Amino acid sequence: MVDDIVEEFGIRVNLTERVEVEGLGRSSRVYLAKLPHGTRVYILDTPEIRALACHPHIVGEEFARLNLEAAREAAKTLLTLTPLGDAGRGEVVFQHVLRAAPGYRLHEALREMGIGFREVWVRPRYVTPSYRDHDEDQSKRLEIVYEDFSQLPEGGELIVVKPDTEASGRTALKSLERLRKAAEERGARLHTLIIYGFISEYGLRAVDQYARSIGFKETYFLAAGNITALCRNLYDMPLYGPDESHYQETGEIKLISGIVDQEILTDYLPEFIPGADQPGDWSARQTRVYTGHGYEPGGIEKHLRNSISLLESLWKLSKNQPWFKEFHRQALKKELQALQETLNQYIKP
Fold it and tell me: pTM, whole model, 2 decimals?
């Protein structure tokens, strides 16, 4: 079954190598992704990450709990495989990209482990709504609406930790460019960049190339679960499946896939819906989010409705395809039911 799916979708399962990280839970695994451009890219697999990726109905408190559990494993991995735990390598700066990124809860996990860091905040925002629409025209509409670099050190080399969802990478580029300017103003030097979260191959290459162009000497990526594919809309990040946005634009079914270890893929198959966006609207899955000026609701009801709409569309375009197996059908049916039940809890009477 796994081999058939790998062949049908062209999933790259031969680019990974298991890496041992001391202290991880029994069900957690780390892999080195051997990519041709030489950047150090790791994949972290945990039951919590898999649940978040496969089940968009997970929101609110359960979403927060699973993220903290995953972040604890991510923190152990980063302390082992990056210079994060080496105090002599530079000052650690944690960049919060608002609204969504604090939901990964990596800063909390690092604090639990006694890792000190300075914090900076930046909020890039699309001037026009951007849900499932990060096409080329949108790049002109991204602006910084809040920033706080007051904790950025004067002088010295910086180890920058930036958790976030990297789809097209445009938000990251905007955030890192503002960080570069702030560091330059303070005489600080960019040295190491560490990225954690759901990461597409497209976004990985864009962020890595840009980071090097602005002075970072080394970059590390820790991808949640897999290095995702990226749909035509530069937003949806499936592990594999049909590109739903391509179908809506052209009427053609185009199959896409990411990079994953075969062990991970085997565990994802019974739960993952082909073509589904793994992170979803990350900020909207949270009960409340920080904007820089205060807290506001994340938008859970909207996320649930949008997820139902996407999965219903995937059902229509997939149900008669030869690659759409019975376990896919069952996973899709089960998730739609869970989404509706969760939505019912949030609908105001």
Answer: 0.95
